Amino acid sequence: MIENYLNIPADKLLEAAGQTIYMLGISLFFGTLIGIPLGLLLVLTRKNGVKANHTIHFLVSGLVNIVRSVPFVILLVFIAPLTKVLVGTKAAIVPLVFYIAPYLARLIESSILEVQPGILEAAKAMGANTLEIIRYFLLPEAKASLVLALTTGTIGLLGATAMAGTIGGGGVGDLALTYGYQRFNNTLMFVTVII
Q1: DSSP characters for 4-72?
Q2: Who's near 74: CB < 8 A, 6+ residues apart?
Q3: Which helix (H) or strand (E) holds 161?
Q4: How far is Cα 160 from Cα 61, in angstroms, rounded to an integer?
Q5: How far is CA 82 from CA 11, 65, 89, 94, 139, in A?
Q6: Residue 75 contacts by C-beta under 8 Å, 6 or more apart in sequence?
Q7: Better-predicted residue by pLDDT, 159 or 167
Q8: Are 23 and 92 in contact (CB under 8 A)?
Q9: Could you read off the pLDDT of 120-151 as tens digits, one per residue?
């Protein structure tokens, strides 16, 4: 039934959806592992932060801004040689991690900055060290906002996985381009948008 309606085998659609979920999951995992510490570093080292350090904040903030400002398609091409060195193939995961980590860092920074200053003052008054402030005060107080930040990041990353399909990264983006756009299959294009 699906084969007749979409003009592709059903297993192609399932394979593309699986590839997208795989790219999304792996790159979100590693991007979060990098993004959370970067976001915390941006908060802690800013002026009036727990560990205020202008130089570190300037460098990390600048690096995050530079990587975030590069359009993803250009980032895909630019990082291709590094990707080949790291994983030995032309994979989309490495550029996706480079894309999402600084994006999440800014979202996480914004979430943590929403924590009321009085909570930090109370933590310092109780004699909490930096790790205790992060673990027992900042992260728990920002939990709801952090969940929203990760959700926003996931949605942005999903769009990037579709772009990765344009360079042969697989997934729904590749399916839409190869079997939808290039073959004028508007029904398949509509289904890939829904997916």
Answers
A1: HHHSS-HHHHHHHHHHHHHHHHHHHHHHHHHHHHHHHHHHHHSTTSTT--HHHHHHHHHHHHHHHHS-H
A2: none
A3: helix 143-164
A4: 22
A5: 32, 20, 10, 8, 33
A6: 67, 95, 98, 99
A7: 159
A8: yes
A9: 888 888 988 988 898 999 999 999 999 999 99
Question: Residue 111: pLDDT above 90?
Answer: yes
The string of pLDDT tens digits covering residues 24-78 is: 999 999 999 999 999 999 999 999 888 889 999 999 999 999 999 988 888 888 8
Structural contact between residues 83 and 171, judged by C-beta atoms closer than 8 angstroms: no
**Contact criterion met (CB below 8 Å) for 39 and 64:** no
Alpha carbon 46 to chain centroid distance? Answer: 23
- Do the Cβ atoms of 170 and 23 come closer than 8 Å? yes
